[in-house]
Amino acid sequence: MVGQNQTFAKGASINRPPLFTGENYPFLKVRMQIFLESVDRGIWDAILNGPFVPVNIVNDVQEPKPFSQWTADKNRRAQYDVKAKNIISSTLTLDEFYRISICTSAQEMWEILYVTHEGTDDVKRARMNSLIQEYEMFRMQQGETIYDVQKRFTHIVNHLTSLGKTFDTDELNIKVLKSLNKIWQPKVTAITESQNLATMTMAALFGKLREHELELGRLNNEEDIERKKNIAFKTEVIKG
User: Fold this and answer.
1) How far is residue 19 CA from its own chain's centroid?
2) How many CB atoms lie within 10 A of CB 226?
3) 116 φ, ψ to 5°?
4) What is the CA radius of gyration of the chain?
5) What is the 3-state secondary structure (H, E, C) of the chain?
6) For residue 156, which of 185, 178, 181, 127 has the smallest C-alpha distance?
7) Which residue ranges make up each domain of the chain?
8) How far apart are CA 12 and CA 18, in angstroms?
9) Cα separation, 237 vs 235, whole angstroms
10) Residues 164-174, buried b or exposed e (16+ Cβ, 10 A)?
């Protein structure tokens, strides 16, 4: 998982794009769009719609306009594709760069990365089916904390969302609550009866669960301390 950790580490700066090693493409896709739009929305537009090429109309036929005839505005618009190619190239490791090194436009680069790491429609469909099964069977595992549950669940949901799956807020919240083990049932009942799960964000739900987890931990610690005191007292009585 070194690649994934590096991706996030490099992506911590607002002044440089995230490093992409070939892992965690859904993160790269979202993070790169945010980064490119933050530099200039025209750069992201060049990826979506292709490069702007100034042309002359000669006998009803479009011909590329010589660079010497470009206006400052046309040069600025044409630069969006160049800047996009530079940013995409700078985010890739050597192996990933080789995939797109012969591309002539940022749009082509982006398409190759997309097909390589997210796949064709058939590949996406297979991945979605696998993730949907993982989502449907999701349960809290032995020894997991609420943080662990949140991390695993969010990972599945984010990947499904990146593949086009949509969720209602209450659907996600109900799924989380149903995934918890028996010791959580009193809290699950309390949240279900007192909260509107259709308007509560998933982050807020996990926040309430973590608060309850901390309270349970505090009570358990107090019980352990009291138990040790009782044992120590009984030991002193026996010795006396």
Assistant:
1) 15
2) 10
3) -65, -45
4) 27
5) CHHHHHHHHHCCCCCCCCCECCCCHHHHHHHHHHHHHHHCHHHHHHHHHCCCCCEEEECCEEEECCHHHCCHHHHHHHHHHHHHHHHHHHCECHHHHHHHCCCCCHHHHHHHHHHHHCCCHHHHHHHHHHHHHHHHCCCCCCCCCHHHHHHHHHHHHHHHHHCCCCCCHHHHHHHHHHHCCHHHHHHHHHHHHHCCCCCCCHHHHHHHHHHHHHHHHHHHHHHHHHHHHHHHHHHHHHHC
6) 127
7) 2-117, 136-239
8) 8
9) 5
10) eeeeeeeebbb
* Tens-digit pLDDT profile for residues 124-183: 788 889 999 999 999 999 989 999 999 899 989 888 887 788 999 999 999 999 999 998
| Structure tokens belonging to residue 93 | 């490791």
